[in-house]
Each structure stands twice: as structure tokens, then as C-alpha cells.
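Blinded run. Sample ID left blank on purpose so nobody reads anything into the name before looking at the predicted structure. Input follows.
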Amino acid sequence: MQNSKLAPQARPHALAELEATIAKAEAERARYRQSTSRASDDDDLRRAKAFLRITEERLAQLQRSREVLISGEQPDGAEAEAEAS
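Blinded prediction complete.
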């Protein structure tokens, strides 16, 4: 069996869906940033900061996914696993 490496292919539908998800995450981040400045007590502030941190981490993951999707590369480690099989 011949193991050939395929050239990266455009994934317009997946990319469009990912861009929409990123836009929603950015809107959430903006909302949580506002809520940190409007927090009425320490509990509200901690909660808003926690949601902001979670949203920022998710946004960073989505942006990394977009980079992988655009470049057509496999995430770290996945290429070595694909070659081994």
C-alpha cells in the first residue's frame, strides 16, 4: 500500500463556521470585560473574571484551530502518528 501525502485543501465551509464561532466568542469576551467593570461585589467580580478567562482561553483555541485549518497542517504530534501508521 502506498502512503502518499495529500496537498492541503481549502475547507471553506468549516472555515466559515469557525469564523462565526470566533465572532461569537469575541462578543462574549467583550460582554464579560464589561461585566468586570460593572461588578457590584467581590463575588460578581470573581465570577466575571473567571468567565472572561474561560472565554479568552476558548478564543485562543479557536484561533489556533483557524490557523491549522488555513494552513492545512496537522496539529503537533499528529503528523508523527500519521506517518507511523
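Unblinding after everyone has recorded impressions. Residues 25 and 41 are 25 Å apart (CA to CA).
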